[in-house]
Amino acid sequence: MPISISVGVSDAEDTSQAFMAAAEDAAAGLDGGCDLCVVFAGGAHLQSVPAILQIVHDRLAPGALIGCGAGGVIGAELELEDDAGAVVWALSAPGSEIEAMELTSVAMGDEMALGGLPDDPADLGDALIVLADPRSFSADALLRHLNDARPAMPVLGGLASAATEGSACLLLDSDIVDEGAVAVSLRGVEVLPCVSQGAAPVGPEMTVTGAEGNVVSELASKPALDRLREVIEDRDHREQALAAEGLLLGIVIDENQPEYERGDFLVRPIIGVDPATGAVAVGSSMRVGQTVRIHVRDASSASDDLRDALSTRALALGDAGAAGTLVFSCNGRGSQMFDEPSHDAGLVADVLGAPAGGFFAAGEIGPVGGRNFLHGFTATMAVFPRD
Questions:
Q1: Distant-in-sequence, close-in-space partners of 198: CB < 8 Å, separation ≥ 6
Q2: Would you kindly state where each structural domain of the chain is located, as residue ranges?
Q3: DSSP helix/strand/coil, 207
Q4: Euclidean distance between the first and final Cα of the chain, in Å?
Q5: Residues sharing a CB contact under 8 Å with residue 166, sequence separation 6 or more, in sequence order
Q6: Could you read off the pLDDT of 324-381 as tens digits, one per residue?
Q7: Do residues 298 and 242 lie in contact, with contact meaning Cβ atoms separated by under 8 Å?
Q8: Is the CB of residue 103 less than 8 Å from the CB of residue 114?
Q9: pLDDT computed for residue 168 by the predictor
Q10: Cα–Cα–Cα angle for 80, 337, 357, nearest 5°?
């Protein structure tokens, strides 16, 4: 039996009413038993989390459940950015192995110790969905570890964006988790990552010829700041205006390609410059020999990038199409970025035509160039093929 995905969403202010409606809709659209539920609860509902868990378990009896507090939710082609959104995303995947787990990270000197992962990395399955508390868990440490221990395994998810006082409000099966992260390991369920970083490349590719840490001193054998100015001066008025609002640097992660497309660059902000030396600081570790390209971001480029990313994924899915999608969109997107309401949810529905549910995250997790990263301003999706 192929997998089945169904999503319920509600904007009811009463918590019990909202999650009863969302759980009923999710159950009604599911073919088979529920193997996994992912629950997103707006801030207004976080005082009644035990009731939410009871309702979802009573109606769906999921084999595994994870969830988190959300600053806004996404479902049924809608984006509910207020505090009263409720989403229940349900998966039926006969023959799969799905295991929910609680993860921790603790600073040990200069290192970060991770807890909750299986001793054998092979036991993590084929993909990992992670929901993390940004205050008490190092997503970067987890991703660095997994990139080494399980290269090419997609890790997707987001940072919780709403919490009760003193609690991260993460959900794990029938429990409330106050800190760390919750995750679900998927085996026997194909997950295709789709990451839209919402930025457009401008100007030529350049090679890093001087770098230390996150500071780039030279680009193409000239002071980095001088080289960036040259590129911007050659752009049209619109691109110059976008660059003035915030310059980004796209870094090629997989250099083993004849040419680089938009999705091949890991986009990171330029966070500082030193006019005296011409050095620039980037929001990522840099090294000599990397290929980089200037990127800019606005609503138009973000919309184009998302449509392109979704269209590429739809083409790869072929006639079978998608059974459903988990969506992790930055809380800086939505109405803050787009004039069109429910922009990301609408595009996902338009291009993939499958049930989608998710939330507006305080940081998004997904792969670029075969390695997993924590992002900002992205729309990151876990797409589940129908067959």
A1: 297, 301, 302, 305, 306, 330, 333, 337, 377, 378, 379
A2: 4-196+302-385, 200-296
A3: strand
A4: 9
A5: 178
A6: 999 999 999 999 999 999 999 999 999 999 999 999 999 999 999 999 999 999 999 9
A7: yes
A8: yes
A9: 82
A10: 35
The per-residue pLDDT for range 201-214, each reduced to its tens digit, is 999 999 999 999 99
DSSP state of 263: G
CB 285 within 8 A of CB 208: no
pTM for the structure as a whole? 0.95
Neighbours of 386 (CB within 10 A): 17
**Per CATH, domain 200-296 is 3.40.1000:** no
- 3-state SS assignment for residue 141: helix
Rounded CA separation 206/220 (Å): 6
DSSP lists the bridge partners of residue 376 as none
pLDDT tops 90 at residue 259: no
CA-CA-CA-CA torsion sign (343, 345, 346, 351):
positive
pLDDT in tens, 37-74: 999 999 999 999 999 999 999 999 999 999 999 999 99
Mean pLDDT of all residues in 318-322: 94
| For the chain, counts of helices (H) and of strands (E) | 7, 27
Q: Please give the structure tokens belonging to residue 313.
A: 């994924």
Stretch 145-161: mean pLDDT: 96
Q: Do 322 and 384 meet the contact criterion of CB atoms below 8 Å apart?
A: yes
Could you give the CA distance from residue 103 to residue 156 in angstroms, rounded to a whole number? 15
Q: What count of other Cβ atoms lies within 10 Å of the Cβ of residue 281?
A: 17
Q: Give residue-wise pLDDT tens across range 192-243.
A: 999 999 998 999 999 999 999 999 999 999 999 999 999 999 998 988 888 8
Do 181 and 156 meet the contact criterion of CB atoms below 8 Å apart? Answer: no
pLDDT at site 1: 67
Beta bridge partners of 112: 107
Q: Which of 69, 70, 83, 65 is nearest to 23 (CA)?
A: 65
| In contact, 75 and 345? CB cutoff 8 Å | yes
- Please say if the pLDDT value at position 262 is more than 90: no
Q: What is the rounded distance in angstroms from the CA atom of residue 70 to the CA atom of residue 319? A: 34
